[in-house]
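stage 2 :: seqdesign
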């Protein structure tokens, strides 16, 4: 079972880029469902109601690599601004970069246990007739933030719980860390480089 995590960001782009990011999240969710993949999304800060500045998406299933790889890089959305009448710009850019899930495993969790909710799942994940039918997989939710992760890497429920807590801690840190957002924006902001046609995918709304 393959698991891939993606970091989606609007960089320093305007509100329209956050709207585009919301459409990207929805598109990934729809394509994941069509391929029988498990889809988890952890949105970041949404400063003005027009969508989050960033999000972490996790895809799990046998076709996760193919879907994830098809979205890596800069994504261009073409639409008229819905919040600035008469605005001439039509192209809005967001970025997608892979996240190394193994890097999360080394994080030290500093989360109150009472803030966590755990659910057991079939370890095999979505699709396929040869699933492991033991309930060793775990979905963990950090109640104050709503951040949710699913861990099925380990064979025991206890180990998957511990791994889930570490990943939640790392993801909370990532979403809250403005310095990381600044670093990502250097790669993915609606800058001259992006506007020169480096998009790997284009969506017209």
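stage 2 :: out
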């Amino acid at each position: 079972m393959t698991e891939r995590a993606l970091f989606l960001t609007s960089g320093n782009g305007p509100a329209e880029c956050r709207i585009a990011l919301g459409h990207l999240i929805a598109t990934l969710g729809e394509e994941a469902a069509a391929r029988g993949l498990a889809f988890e999304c952890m949105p970041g800060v949404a400063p003005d109601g027009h969508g989050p500045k960033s999000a972490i998406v996790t895809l799990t299933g046998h076709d996760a690599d193919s879907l994830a790889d098809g979205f890596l890089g800069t994504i261009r959305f073409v639409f008229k601004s819905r919040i600035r009448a008469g605005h001439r710009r039509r192209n809005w850019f967001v970025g997608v970069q892979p996240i190394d899930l193994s890097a999360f495993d080394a994080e030290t969790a500093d989360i109150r246990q009472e803030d966590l909710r755990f659910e057991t799942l079939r370890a095999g994940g979505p699709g396929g007739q040869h699933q492991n039918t033991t309930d060793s997989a775990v979905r963990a939710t950090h109640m104050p933030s709503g951040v949710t992760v699913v861990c099925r890497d380990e064979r025991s429920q206890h180990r998957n719980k511990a791994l889930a807590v570490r990943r939640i801690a790392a993801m909370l840190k990532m979403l809250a860390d403005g310095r990381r957002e600044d670093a990502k924006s250097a790669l993915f902001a609606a800058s001259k480089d992006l506007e020169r046609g480096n998009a790997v995918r284009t969506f017209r709304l």
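stage 3 :: structure notes
- The longest helix spans residues 15-34.
- The CA atoms of residues 112 and 142 lie 9 Å apart.
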